[in-house]
Design a protein that fits this description.
The structure is a single chain. The protein is an alpha/beta fold. The relative contact order is 0.13. Helix 3 (197-208) runs parallel beside helix 6. 18% of the residues lie in helices and 29% in strands. The chain has helices at 4-13, 151-159, 197-208, 223-231, 253-258, 294-312, 366-371; strands at 20-24, 37-38, 48-49, 53-56, 66-73, 87-91, 103-106, 110-113, 116-119, 129-130, 141-143, 164-168, 172-177, 182-183, 194-195, 212-215, 238-242, 262-267, 271-272, 278-282, 285-290, 323-327, 338-347, 353-357, 374-378, 390-395. It is elongated. It folds into 4 domains: 4-17 and 170-312, Molybdenum Cofactor Biosythetic Enzyme, Chain A, CATH 3.40.980; 20-43 and 135-168, Molybdopterin biosynthesis moea protein, domain 2, CATH 3.90.105; 48-130, Molybdopterin biosynthesis moeA protein, domain 3 (Beta Complex), CATH 2.170.190.11; 323-399, MoeA, C-terminal, domain IV (Beta-clip, Beta Barrel), CATH 2.40.340.10. The strands form 7 sheets. A 6-stranded mixed beta sheet has the order 7-4-6-5-9-8, with no helix packed on it. A 6-stranded mixed beta sheet has the order 16-13-17-21-20-18. The protein contains 7 helices and 26 strands. Bound molecules: ligand LQZAQKY5 and molybdate ion. Ligand LQZAQKY5 binds at residues 177, 179, 181-182, 194, 196-199, 242-248, 251, 273, 275-276, 291-294, 296, 363. Molybdate ion binds at residues 272-275, 291, 293, 296, 363.
């Protein structure tokens, strides 16, 4: 059976980022830049004052100097002419510094009366002047392609006069739940059946990862029904299936999709929960076949679906970030499959992050998954450890789960 790292590598190797689309700046936060943002202007465009006060020549600006105020230039209203020796211009924060001036004396250090300003402090060359291009110049690359746009980035792009940005199209992710026992929430539930939590949990997760989910109708445990449902995903960037991935007589997802040309890349990985994970490509659409058990489906979505969607969005598709934590209980030796124990986090008295796994860890237990803050990673064949040992965890909410 494949390791988690190898499986993720094989998934990512098959995926290409979506093409670009143009979006208004107001909708760009959180999107991935498809082209660098190049500044369309120089900021500030001219030398401007950083303070409210007087533009003067540093050569004239001795303490006690008396200078003639020849104009007033509020921000947005530059002084028309050049400023000569012995002269000053009244300025405000953001005002253009007039030609001939090279320093600002703040108004707290000056007194104006009858058109004359008397300086109490000496002015120094360049003092309180923001030089043209201090922030950036026209033609500068301000943001690289492949960056997830933050609110700060949006501000920078706006400052550089970009009303529109080129970003990767959000990938469309089709979600197909399979099984005779499955009903959608609110529908009649077959005898002994179960409501499809997977469809909606996956849809929410896809959205959190930057994709656009499309929930397909549930397909029955029937080869032709699964093949027909797959047709609906023909234009998706990724198809996620759940259920029917294992070895049972009615686990027909592989057969159904094979009828539509599925080329299987791998099936089964050395992990728990989620052993029967399947990956392949069907008519150019990558297909990630998740197990039906709700916890297995979501853990596989975290470890493989999230990087896949991120790769489609134009990002690297990194593994979910891990961090160290102190485990409050002893852990038994692990078998050959990497394990992911659902657990809660807290801070110890010494401030260290502490993690406590739940007792039973069955892959059907959604309430526990919802209550968990993190999963504890157990490597294949990890030895038993005593309470207090350091382990690695993945935080769930931080990953969108
Ligand atoms: N003999 C073996 N049996 C099983 C093995 C195995 O290796 N040998 N693997 C087990 C493991 S591990 C898992 S995980 C499951 C995965 O099975 P499937 O992917 O084929 O899933 P189903 O059998 O269709 O369903 C499993 C379980 O999950 C429920 N389910 C299915 N779809 C949904 C949904 N959309 N929302 C909520 N719950 C769903 C379904 O009713 C079943 O209870 O196989 C083990 N068996
Ligand atoms: O791997 Mo299954 O996902 O153990 O329940």
């Amino acid at each position: 059976m494949l390791s988690i790292t190898d499986a993720r590598g094989r998934i990512l190797a098959l995926l290409r980022p979506t093409g670009a689309e143009i979006v208004p700046l107001g909708e760009a936060a959180g999107r991935v830049l498809a082209a660098p943002v190049i500044s369309r202007l120089t900021q500030p465009p001219r030398d401007v004052s950083a303070m409210d006060g007087y533009a003067v020549r540093a050569d004239d600006a001795a303490a006690g100097a008396r200078l003639r105020v020849v104009g007033i230039a509020p921000a947005g209203h530059p002084f028309g002419g050049a400023m000569g020796p012995g002269e000053a211009v009244r300025l405000f924060t953001g005002s253009v510094v007039p030609e001939g001036a090279d320093c600002i004396v703040i108004q707290e250090d000056a007194t104006e009366a009858d058109g004359i300003v008397t300086l109490r402090e000496r002015g120094l060359p360049g003092r309180h002047v923001r030089g043209a291009g201090l922030d950036f110049a026209v033609g500068d690359e301000l943001l690289p392609a492949g960056r997830v746009l933050t609110a700060r980035d949006v501000g920078l792009a706006a400052a550089a006069n970009h009303p529109w940005l080129s970003v990767h199209r959000r990938p469309t992710v089709a979600i197909l739940a399979t099984g005779d026992e499955i009903a959608m929430p609110g529908e009649p539930i077959p005898a002994g059946g179960i409501v499809s939590s997977n469809s909606h949990a996956l849809a929410a997760f896809v959205r959190a990862c930057g994709g656009v989910p499309v929930i397909l109708p549930v397909a029955r445990d029937d080869r032709e029904a699964i093949a027909a449902a797959a047709d609906a995903a023909a234009r998706a960037d990724l198809l996620l299936t759940t259920g029917g991935a294992s070895v049972g007589t009615y686990d027909l997802v592989q057969q159904g999709l094979s009828d539509r040309g599925l080329a299987l890349d791998f099936w089964k990985i050395a992990m728990r929960p989620g052993k029967p994970l399947m990956f392949g490509s069907m008519g150019g659409v990558p297909v990630l076949g998740l197990p039906g058990n709700p916890v297995s489906a979501m853990i596989c979505a975290l470890l493989f679906g999230r990087p896949a969607i991120e790769r489609l969005c134009g990002l690297a598709g990194d593994a979910p970030p891990r961090e160290p934590a102190r485990c409050t209980v002893a852990l038994a030796a692990n078998d050959h499959r990497a394990d992911h124990l659902r657990a809660v986090l807290a801070r110890g008295e010494d401030g260290m992050l502490e993690v406590t796994p739940f007792g039973p860890q069955d892959s059907s237990m959604l309430r526990r998954l919802a209550r968990a803050d993190a999963v504890v990673l157990r490597a294949p064949d990890a030895p038993a450890v005593a309470a207090g040992a350091m382990v690695e965890v993945i935080r769930l909410a931080a990953c969108g789960l």
